[in-house]
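pls ignore typos typing on phone
pyridoxal-5'-phosphate + seq
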Amino acid sequence: MKTYNVDENGFYGEFGGAYVPEILYKTVEDLKNQYLPIIESPEFVAEYNQLLKDYVGRPSALYYAKRMSEKYGCKLYLKREDLNHTGAHKINNAIGQILLAKKMGKKRIIAETGAGQHGVATATVCALMNMPCRVYMGDTDVARQRPNVERMKMLGAEVFPVQSGNKTLKDATNEAIRDWCCHPADTFYIIGSTVGPHPYPDMVARLQSVISKEIKEQLLEKEDRDYPDYLMACIGGGSNAAGTIYHYIDDERVKIVLGEAGGYGIDTQETAASLNIGTPGILHGSRIKVMQDEDGQIIEPYSISAGLDYPGTGPIHCNLYETGRAQVLPINDDEALDAAFELTRMEGIIPALESSHALALLPKMKFNPTDIVVLTVSGRGDKDMETYLKNVR
Ligand SMILES: *Cc1c(COP(=O)(O)O)cnc(C)c1O
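k done
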């Protein structure tokens, strides 16, 4: 059967793989050999599920958005990852990876962060598990996501501001990889999305797959069938989208529509829509679609949303895009802001700016009235209040 899942070499079609420097080879190889036996072990599953339930607050609600459904002419359900502890889906993955790190005997945790949600999730699980934690964050993001920086510090993490490039997520990731190269034996790198060398994209997708596992159960209860007509999500590196589609990825009855960050528009220099305008290249350990010039130099990305401001997208979604399995539309800053205010005023939910890129897909769609649509609200908007208040609709 045709599958969109990973092959034994870590590839999704022509994307993925593990392109790491010699010094990390053994570390990545160890992880590749150990991640599945560990995360599939009954002991891990029990501990992980317990924490998801009692610490994160799962299952997250599947909310029927009545007013928005009427407006868009479909049955719209919102998968409420914004209700999780720490405010986004990132915690699902961070809990899984720290349990894995402990089982592998690692003593120190590093992470990269853009908007700070992954940094906060990692700092949180490090406090929980009593592990030292250093978070790399671009200096631009340190400034625009100040509340999350303060949360990380209060949680006991060391936040390391990165000054290279345009001081955003790509640059923070470079710095985290540099640290990892210096301490490969004792340090576990908790990557926050479905990016990086194999096995990270597959591992993160599995740890986020609880989202679609719950959607199946919740739809069966509410609609008497366990699949929707449409799944929708925003896409930065791709983890909330990967979790949303995981159990439906090979089920072609389910259409997948994703929103990536258009910035000021894909015909301008100010964009982060790497699936729509990128070309294949190797970035941060895997072959993906990257925004680059003819010489292979990275074009600095731009998005109003720090969580989507990255010049590539993970290999899973590169393959879904290239094969046509998923439709990926660029969503511009303005459209995302409109969508954020619309959800807030119509349903009383203030979404993260990233999630607003999924909501902004709705006006671009033509649904049938009977269509069941599940859209993942990846996080809450508290961290984005300053941006929203500057752009009131
Ligand atoms: C990090 C983040 C994203 C983007 O990351 P993905 O890996 O693509 O999910 C989206 N929404 C929120 C709220 C985030 O914090």
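Residues 88, 90, 115, 117-118, 193, 234-241, 307-308, 352, 354-355, 378-379 surround pyridoxal-5'-phosphate (CB under 6 Å). The longest helix spans residues 25-39. more later
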